[in-house]
Each structure stands twice: as structure tokens, then as C-alpha cells.
Amino acid sequence: MAKNLLISSSGLNVHAIEYREAVVEIAKKYFYLSATNRLVIHIDDAMHYIKYTDIKSDIIFSDLYNSQGMKPKQIKAPFLRDCKNTINQEGILVLNIRHTSPKLQEELDELLAIEFDYRLLSFEVESGNRIALAFKNDISLITKDELLTKGKWLQEEMNVPMERYAELHSF
Q1: Phi/psi class of residue 53: alpha, beta or left (left: φ > 0; alpha: ψ in -120 to 50)?
Q2: pTM to 2 decimals?
Q3: How far is the C-alpha of 78 from the C-alpha of 25, rounded, in Å?
Q4: pLDDT at 169
């Protein structure tokens, strides 16, 4: 994800938090994650880092998984609140959610609605994951044509099939 973000915009600075140093080494060796002053990698637990960082971000991508699956704390009030406090006034939290029961999904939707004042969008991807976008402030208005245009651009820049995900569904 860090590599694609850096490629997509030359003005973008990325702070990545990775729990395991070995994952960073593998990313550099096998996925050609380049050393650049626009990328800072913090070796830390994401929950700890988000709680104590002074850095304000435009966007946080939360994709916290280990060999057992999704890290449960990723969808709990304290972490979501810490993320909200870490993003700037126009910031967005993007959560990758997978393998949640309908009951857990309903609880998460309610929690996100409370923490982010119902400023939410979500969509499902083919793998079965659900991507939730939580906005600190109002959601920018965008027409479907504008969204599709941006989706096509992202698809070309990041080699990710964004166009078909342009159909967002609100909570």
C-alpha cells in the first residue's frame, strides 16, 4: 500500500506503522519498497502509535491483520477515537474489514456512526472485504461522473480496479 501511495502522488508523504521489522525487510527486498525521504516507517504497535503520535494525517488506512485474521482492537471505540483525534479537520479513516459476523458488523456500524457522527461510506470488494470510510467532518459532495473519473485515474495510477468500486453505499 505504501509503495502504491508514493507512486500515485509525488507530493505525498507516507508514515507507515508496521509491528514487525521482518515485514519491512521483506517489502524492501521482494516488493521493491524504495527508500525515500517521503516514507517514514515506524516499527510499533499501531494501537500504541496512533494513541501517542503528535502527527496529524489527512488519511489513515487501517489494515491490521495477523496470521489469525483481523485484529479485533481495530474495530473498538478507543482505537477509532484515537484515529479520529489523529486525522486533521478534513481527514478520513479508511478501514479494511474482513470476516465479521452480521452481529459484529452491526455493532461496528453503530460504533462508527457514533464516533464519526454518521459521516460514513462503505463498499464491499470482490474478496469479501468491506471498506469503510469515516470522515471527521462533512463528506465532500461529488457527482457519480466525478467519482468514476477519479476511480479511472486511480485505477491507472495504482493498478487497482477502482472503477468498479465507485458505487459507494452509505450506512
Answers
A1: beta
A2: 0.77
A3: 30
A4: 45
